[in-house]
Amino acid sequence: MKKKQSIKLLLFSFFFVYLTAFLGSLFTFSEVNSEWYNSIKPSITPPNFIFPIIWNILFFLIFLSFYLAMLKKDKEPLIKIKILFLSNLFFNFLWSFFYFGLKDLALAFVDILLLIILTLLLIVKIWRIEKKSSFLLFLYLIWIIFAMFLNLLSLIKTLR
User: Fold this and answer.
1) What is the Cα–Cα distance from 106 to 104, expressed in whole angstroms?
2) How many domains is the chain partitioned into structurally?
3) Domain that holds residue 75
4) CATH code: domain of residue 87
5) Cα–Cα distances in Å, from 121 out to 34, 129, 149, 151?
6) By the 8 A CB rule, do 72 and 125 touch?
7) Quick check: 42 and 58 in contact, CB under 8 A?
8) CA 57, CA 111: separation in Å to the nearest integer?
9) Which residues of 100-137 are buried (b: 16+ CB within 10 A; e: fewer)?
10) What is the mean pLDDT of the chain?
11) Alpha-carbon gap, residue 96 to 35, rounded angstroms
């Protein structure tokens, strides 16, 4: 692949992954210390300072995975993978919007279930063309499964 095209892919991948991180943080940042969040937060929730550390690592791995997958030459699966990546990022953003922005824990729960399915699909699709890129998404998958349990526990807490 030409160097110019590789740099374009690098910037494209970086932009969309970190745009998602930024937009999601707009809803999250002001709420993590709020009375509302503290009232619904499950006891197994890690301390607040852990989340930005973990998410920065995960967004870097997502970015790297996206970039490595896009470097492959076969265009047809790449279009599907690009759509899956962008859909995944969109649902990632929506979770922050639903959970912290709208404070709709049920909608956030449905969203995170879809996010888990999209991530599994992404891992499987990428595995066929770039195994390293696929491996980079496993920590992300584990974290969003954990987040799904936290979301479910907070939803249950609000229904009592």
Assistant:
1) 6
2) 1
3) 3-159
4) 1.20.1260.100
5) 35, 13, 20, 22
6) no
7) no
8) 22
9) bbebebeebbebbeebbebbeebbebbeebbeebbebb
10) 93
11) 17
CB-based contact 54:143 (threshold 8 Å): yes
Of the candidates 49, 65, 54, 67, which has an alpha carbon nearest to the alpha carbon of residue 12?
67
Contact 95, 105 (CB under 8 A): no
Report H helices in 29-74.
35-40, 50-70
For tokens 């995170």, what's the residue?
112
For the beta carbon of residue 22, count every other beta carbon within 10 angstroms.
11
* Residue 85 buriedness (CB in 10 A; 0-12 / 13-18 / 19+): buried
3-60 pLDDT per residue, tens:
888 898 899 999 999 999 999 999 999 899 999 999 999 999 999 999 999 999 999 9
Q: Which tokens in the block code for residue 90?
A: 């969109």
Residue 134 and residue 16 in contact, taking contact as beta carbons nearer than 8 Å: no
Of 148, 133, 146, the closest CA to residue 61 belongs to 133
The whole-number pLDDT of residue 1 equals 60
Judge contact between 6 and 59, C-beta under 8 A: no
